[in-house]
Amino acid sequence: MHRYRSHTCGALRDSDIGSQVRLSGWCHRIRDHGGVLFIDLRDHYGMTQVVVDPDSPAFADAETLRSEWVVRIDGKVKARLEGTENANLPTGAVEVFATGIEVLGPSAELPLPVFGDLEYPEDTRLKYRFLDLRREKLHNNIMLRTKVIDSMRRRMKEQGFSEFQTPILTASSPEGARDFLVPSRLHPGKFYALPQAPQQYKQLLMMAGFDRYFQIAPCFRDEDPRADRLPGEFYQLDVEMSFVEQEDVFATMEPVITGVFEEFAEGRSVQKNWPRIPYAEAIAKYGSDKPDLRNPIEMQDVSEHFRGSGFKVFARILEGEKNRVWAIPAPGGGSRAFCDRMNSWAQGEGQPGLGYLMVKEDGEGQGPIANNIGPERVAGIIKQMGLKGGDACFFVAGDPDKFYKFAGSARNKVGQELNLIDENAFAFAWIVDFPMFEYNEDEKKVDFSHNPFSMPQGGLKALNEEDPLSLKAF
């Protein structure tokens, strides 16, 4: 028999009953049930319950074991007693009766437990990262990442893409963040830069005729962390294609991303047909160029209902040429308590507040705004927004370029507070027709809106002859 194991801790099944086996792993949990010891033995592959009774020659050794000791156990596979099976474990129908135990590595008292899912300070977790990574949640996360990358690779290769690795030590080519620099030994006083993205290299590959490239690419950027990105470095599925148009990119990437999510959705629904949403429409409806489409709320421009109205605050704002009033419907949110809560939230976001309108069960509007603009204008808003009794509607006014992000946050907040978001779904979309340029108010100049690697719609002719601020990008 092998020095350390005949099976892994996730391998034993009913078919192994009666077999002599050898397992090696970590003592995940040890329980004493009236003199009989139960050891949950864990390795990378799973968990097996080991039983050591007082008659076993291994009992004396078993009594010395503690959590996270590494041991080798010899024993016989038996069926668990009826009613004691563990349906949550693949090995839950069997257990191993130990006949021999060898301690391969004892452990001192643990600074943080591996069993369970308690939160611990980040500095403790990082100092004892080898223990932190033994925890089930983190172990599963790392394995999920590996499986997702394998799935991406398989799907990209099936579509004729080749995987290439591009250089890590390179020349500086800033992409909106600071570079990480590496001093050169051979050229004193000069530095390499770590790539913020493999942009130039993948374009060189296309010019050289390689046609379809992909890479699970490391990107290094000296910038603050984001909600979905670690500070310093992250990995992305990087792709480049030759002789294609926008629709070819969509047709290539949509099944890859949808397929990966379907493969790992764990019962959640995955949207198959991605809508194409123009950037301007996404901003106007959702207040974001990456909207959460699981939230059914759509904002609308209701400026005409307030222009020249008795609600002087909005009426004066609308005297400005660019200014608008946007409405955020809140289905089922027509209570004073909810509206006051949203108003307090807006003030916490640095805003003066949120104007609101509530709809009574008889369909009439109520609240300060309803009292000031009159029943005809109220009825127009209710009709336009599709409001019903028990609903509410919130309003944001000013220059949309300045308030759209707040309006989008308010939309998200309403959806969360009223439980309108389908948490068991994935909803995707392509946001198209991004503006190629925007006006930089701080530097008083026209600047790239998204990135300089996009192609303007209309090509070089449009770039040379049309107003830059009117150009849309592919």
In short:
The chain has 474 residues and is α+β, with helices and mostly antiparallel strands. The protein contains 13 helices and 23 strands.
How many helical elements? 13
- Relative helix content: 25-40%
How far apart lie the N and C ends? Answer: 63 Å
* Overall geometry: globular
Q: Spans of 5+ residues with little confidence (pLDDT < 50)? A: none
Q: Can you count the beta strands?
A: 23
Major sheet strand order: 1-2-3-5-4
| Rg result | 31 Å
Helices and strands, with pairings:
Elements: E1 20-33, E2 36-43, E3 46-52, H1 59-62, E4 70-79, E5 94-105, H2 122-127, H3 129-132, H4 136-158, E6 162-163, E7 181-183, E8 191-193, H5 199-207, E9 212-221, E10 232-241, H6 246-263, E11 269-270, E12 276-278, H7 279-286, E13 300-301, H8 312-317, E14 324-330, H9 336-348, E15 355-359, E16 365-366, H10 368-373, H11 375-385, E17 392-398, H12 400-417, E18 425-426, E19 430-432, E20 434-435, E21 437-440, E22 445-448, H13 459-465, E23 472-473
Parallel strand pairs: 3-5, 6-9, 11-18, 12-19
Antiparallel strand pairs: 1-2, 1-4, 2-3, 4-5, 7-8, 9-10, 13-14, 14-17, 15-16, 15-17, 20-23, 21-22
Helix pairs in contact: 4-6, 7-12
